[in-house]
Specification:
This protein is of the alpha/beta class and 340 residues long. It folds into two domains: 71 residues, Chemotaxis Receptor Methyltransferase Cher, domain 1, CATH 1.10.155; 246 residues, Vaccinia Virus protein VP39 (Rossmann fold, 3-Layer(aba) Sandwich). Helix content is 41%, strand content 17%. The chain has 15 helices and eleven strands. Helix 2 runs parallel beside helix 4 and helix 4 crosses helix 5. The N and C termini lie far apart (62 Å). It binds S-adenosylmethionine. The site of S-adenosylmethionine has 22 residues, from loops.
Length: 340
């Protein structure tokens, strides 16, 4: 029986190891962390696309062709992101601040609400009714006083430490900039709003450069409300067509770092909130656990970890306990505390 194109591909272990090394050196992408089947699927598709049947030859091609290198990394689709992805998670995050400030008004939700129901091809089964009021999870809001961000907001000290928010694996910046937009708007409304620092990191050097440029296509801004679009974006002509340029004040309000999450961080502070969405799905078990140990260390007591909609640690993982199962939000607790 004739071999299929896929069966004809020559992928020796030694060439595979060479590829992993090459990617690490050239792009910072460390595929050691990923499931092997996940890597092979993408690799084979790329080899077939450029009609290269031997991985050794494909490695040489990758080294000589920057465009193919970029396409290869992109083919993993691990940089996929957009502004206000799962906007109800942002609404919940915003409401943590509003409730801590004893403020109850729909105005901020309406500013956040996207104009069009989102047709997300990655999640075809999810339907969002934008007219419906947002339902907040009781456990999260009935334990507000246990959150480190709440303690900072309520602190009576004359100089409060900032609230630290980390967008871990930020890709091209849409997630941390969405957080910055949201916090910036709260800051303008509340004179005593606490200082917030948004730190964003990613392992991929290309994607961090994109984040620094902060110029986006339709795909990225499709979930931005009209209010925020008018306020923080300017539509300009570029050699690639019309693009949305993010305003400088929002660009300057976050810190972008190129780093690998599985390496121990040296930040002197602890985070009150860590957004780590759509990263865990790619990790193998060993690195997932290694990574979660780092997250636990970097989170304050009462700090929140927000995972992606398809990611879960079940109800508990070490000191991380689920506090909002709908939005996959965990709290870092140092004791056997229960949350009701
Ligand atoms: C799908 S994007 C997530 C973007 C955003 N958090 C979101 O949910 O829309 C996943 C990102 O994880 C980054 N990444 C993968 N491994 C990483 C690692 N070890 N350390 C830091 N970032 C990593 C990739 O470069 C990619 O940009």
């Amino acid at each position: 029986m004739a071999l299929t194109i896929e069966e004809k591909l020559i992928i020796k272990q030694v060439s595979f190891d060479k590829l992993i090394k090459l990617l690490k050196e050239k792009t910072g992408l460390n595929l050691d962390y990923y499931r092997r089947t996940f890597i092979l699927r993408r690799l084979k598709a790329r080899m077939i696309r450029v009609a290269c049947t031997d991985l050794d030859k494909y490695n040489t091609f990758l080294l000589s062709d920057k465009e193919e290198l970029r396409k290869f990394v992109e083919s993993f689709n691990i940089n996929y992101t957009y502004f206000f992805r799962d906007w109800e998670v942002y609404a919940t995050f915003q409401n943590l601040f509003l409730k801590s400030l004893n403020y109850d008004d729909e105005i901020f939700i309406n500013r956040l609400r996207p104009n069009q129901p989102l047709n997300d091809e990655k999640m075809p089964k999810r339907k969002i009714n934008l007219e419906q009021p947002i339902k907040y999870h009781e456990t999260l809001f009935s334990n507000l006083e246990k959150l480190s961000l709440y303690r900072k907001i309520k602190s009576k000290r004359s100089v409060n430490p900032p609230i630290y928010v980390w967008s871990c694996a930020c890709a091209s910046g849409e997630e941390p900039y969405s957080l910055a937009i949201l916090l910036n708007n709260l800051k303008h409304h509340f004179p005593k709003f606490p200082k917030c620092e948004v730190i964003a990191s990613d392992i991929d050097t290309f994607t961090i450069e994109d984040a620094k440029r902060a110029i986006y296509g339709e795909e990225s801004i499709r979930n931005v409300s009209e209010y925020y679009l008018n306020k923080h974006f300017r539509l300009n002509n570029t050699p690639q067509g019309m693009k949305y340029h993010l305003s400088n004040d929002i660009k300057k309000s976050i810190t972008l770092v190129n780093e690998d999450i599985t390496k121990i961080r040296t930040h002197p502070w602890k985070f009150d909130v860590i957004f780590c969405r759509n990263l865990l799905i790619y990790f193998n078990i060993e690195n997932r656990n290694k990574f979660l140990r780092i997250i636990e260390k970097q989170l304050s007591e009462g700090g929140l970890l927000i995972l992606g909609k398809t990611e879960s640690l079940f109800n508990t993982h070490g000191r991380l306990k689920i506090i909002d199962p709908t939005n996959h939000i965990y709290i870092n607790t140092s004791s056997n505390e229960t949350f009701t």
